[in-house]
Here is the input.
Amino acid sequence: MKTQRVLVLLAAVGIGYRCRPEHRLEMWKGATELLRDAGRYPEAQRLAEWVQRLIPDDEEWRLTVLRLHVLQERYEEVLERLDEVPDRTLQRRLEKKVLRAYCLMGLGRVQEAAAVIAELPQDAKSTDPRLAMILAEMAYHADNPQRVADFVTTASLWEPNLGRVRKLFPYLRRHRKWKAIADADRPVAHADLAQALSSAEAAMNLNLVARVADLATQVHNRWPDDPRVLEPLFYLAAKRPDTPWETAFAEVLRGCVRQAEHPDLLYGLFEKCFGLGRPDLAWLVYRRLAELDAAHPGLPFTVVLHGDRWFVFRKRFFGVPAADAAERMSLKNWMRWNRQLAPWREVWPLIPLAAELAVSDPTTLRKQSLRRALEAFRARVETQQLSTAMRFEYVTALEIAGEFATATQQLAQIAAELPAERERVTLALSEMMERRADWQGVYEVLRPCADEPEPSLAALLRLTQAELNLRLGLPALETARQAVRLYPHSAQAAHLFATVLSQYDSPEEALFFLEQPRARTDVNLSLLEVDLLFRTGRYTELSRQLNNLLLPAVVTSRLPPQRTFLQPAESAVLWSRFALPGARDFAAAARILRANLPATTSPFLREMLGLWLACYEAGAQGPAADPERWLACGRDRREQATALNQLCLLLARHGQVESARRVARRAVETWPESPVLWRLLVGLSEGDLGLVAAARRACPQDPELWLA
Here is the structure.
């Protein structure tokens, strides 16, 4: 009985304690915060205002109510009531300024927000997500994509910012800030398709397949009839053939084709259909395009581009066993022979141009289709009825027909009429020249891209390849380095950089680069690593790597003994003694240049190579060795540094070390970001400590300069 009385007494005391007004207020405050954290802002707002009526003098709670207004984007109301909260402490003044700037920016009052931000301490700007959001939006209005990318990740740490953060995704996408988009997004459903697709494109460029799958599922479920949804679905279907992603792609495509009213949109689907090994989908697109516009140039041009794949399917799509899900086969003969039998009897009439393309050699039809496509293109060009996308297809048709000059004129016309398409025009022109093996033309077209603030990856890769083929080692190395720096997740950029390193700089450094952690694996990188292990004499590691790749082992008995030690460290400061090409190398280079000079079309190469031959034949003496003449060859600092580098090598070869050192210093002053030029100068100076320190400051990441 006594125990029961004690328990009853304790319960009564507990109930009395909980019923105290102060305790009940704290419970309601906690409930408000729980509702806020659950995203139930209207309910949290009502409860918060009810609590405020009970404690009207609680200044901190008044700020809590205003923060709830901010979460609901009631910015005008916050600005009206913010001054009602007194500035009793430094922390509160800072909090009010942050809220004021955040609301001003939310209302688009950029200049007022900037004035408030200027009064805030620097450390708050770098750590407070609300301030980061304001600074990111200010950078957007100032058209500074790099600062937007710098602040948007911090801004995303505060969940209420997510809507405003995502509004910046299309802008960041235009400027290829893939890492910033991926880091700033959160696993919360998207409400805007353009923002969701921007995030998906960022994930595709970073090879984040799982994230692409999540976003593709979202957009497929929410916007199943929008043709833009096909892009992430195509990416996943191409990455993972013979999976439900291909089924989803086909389902969305059929729905889009049924509803499509724009012929050019339909034409853009052909490449995806044939790329997946699904010509049956392409037939569907062809029939719908013919219904909408029977004279559309895309109809005959599709036959030109894809006539050889008209009946090529993935094997597993028809249940044929295949080791690789992407393995394909042609059903041309099978369908032609069985077109009178079920079920092909019903399918054959649905295949456009079935009889014409199901022949052993459809070349004649494809040539006829090219003529018809060009006629249709020209008719629409004359009446200005050709869209921008189809104008580029017209250029491709002209190139296939061998009308290169006309194709070039069309590209120039597009660039003049549509300045926003100049980058695409430049890439298209350089691609045409690459197919013609005109590497000097590629170099001339893409040369300005290296100095742009945001060059595309394709432009940098093609420019590097052109410089590599033209034996321009120094600019090729720096262009490849730029590609790796701007696109660290690109396996193509990594492979090309390692290739240039191995050919023109150091196989050791190329191997060191490849052994660093990489964002994605690639078989070409692994094979290049095998080659570099062999070239650097690391036969034990080579055998291990071949075993990992399931490749045949090398016969070690036929190889020279593996070196125990690397080159002496002094080689980093005695470059001119270790790595300067010999007299035979210079003589061989002179013979090649004499043979190639008459066919040289690049103004820079023509001037520099002619000067190189004159200087070589004069023994690096006289007017041909004047640095000013070599500088005049170049049209920008990259070309000027390249020319000076060649003069420096000629002078060093002929024993004029002091003159070579002066020219090397001029080259470094012209292009201080190049580690190769600093290495040359350090080597010619034989380890001058002040010079080594300056080189380290200019190129802190270079391993050779660190060793020096």
Residues 363-382 form the longest helix (20 residues). Strands lie at 312-314, 328-330. The radius of gyration is 34 Å.
